[in-house]
Amino acid sequence: MPLKRMAKPEEIGELISFLCSDKSNYITGIAVSIAGGKILF
């Protein structure tokens, strides 16, 4: 569902913080689309 707004810098920062943390240690490869639901597929 589209959010109809641009991402806030802190929202992108939270994603980066998660990916750099030990909580994401099981993730080995991913392409993250930060589009707010604009791209649906």
List the helices and strands and how they pair.
Layout: H1 9-20
What sort of overall outline do the alpha carbons produce when their principal axes are compared? flat
Distance between the termini: 11 Å
Strand content: under 5%
Radius of gyration: 12 Å
Q: How many distinct helices?
A: 1
Question: Which whole number gives the mean pLDDT?
Answer: 85
Description:
It comes from Desulfosporosinus metallidurans. The termini are close together. The model has no long low-confidence stretch (mean pLDDT 85). By secondary structure, this protein is mainly alpha-helical. The protein is flat, with a radius of gyration of 12 Å. It has one domain. 0% of the residues are buried.
Name a few traits of the molecule:
single chain; 41 residues; 0% strand; 29% helix
In brief:
The protein is mainly α. Helix content is 29%, strand content 0%.
